[in-house]
Design brief:
single chain, 146 residues, alpha/beta, Transcription Regulator spoIIAA, 5-stranded mixed beta sheet, two-stranded antiparallel sheet, 4 helices, 7 strands, 33% helix, globular
Length: 146
């Protein structure tokens, strides 16, 4: 995930980040081989997703896509243009690379996201499973397993 450009916003999670600045979309470290992961926080705008698009495009150009998405406790949905960019990026790739998606782990404590994932899971290629924030290691292992 070397080319990931991060958009930082001040003060979303005071005390958790360097000098009060935190990334909105960041790559997860220490992932199992073959698994990619990101963490989203705050309010994600269309511009932030457009900046992430090149990294996402690299992710889906593999034979098997195993993905862990952590939706942090401070995530507050989409900002301006975020929903449209998310749909263009996600669903467009789901259609183009349908057979490559193997496992997607969504890690969150946001009940509304859990409900949304369950409601939309039938449209997502591969397997999808929701984990609590405290179960990130389990989510990583599940995404890596067969």
């Amino acid at each position: 995930m070397g080319g990931l450009r991060l958009k930082f916003r001040r003060g979303c999670l005071p005390g958790r980040s360097w000098k009060g600045w935190i990334p909105i979309i960041e790559a997860l470290r220490e992932m199992p081989h073959g698994v990619t992961g990101v963490r989203v926080s705050c309010r994600v705008s269309g511009e932030e997703l457009r900046q992430f698009r090149p990294t996402w495009e690299k992710l889906v150009e593999t034979e098997e896509i195993r993905f862990v998405e952590v939706i942090d406790s401070d995530y507050d949905g989409f900002g301006p243009g975020g929903l449209v960019e998310d749909w263009k990026m996600s669903w467009g790739n789901f259609v183009r690379h349908h057979s490559a998606f193997k496992r997607i782990a969504v890690v969150t404590d946001k009940e509304w996201i859990v409900h949304a994932v369950h409601a939309l899971a039938w449209m997502v290629p591969g397997e999808i499973k929701v984990f609590a924030l405290g179960d990130l290691d389990d989510a990583k292992q599940w995404a890596a397993s067969d």
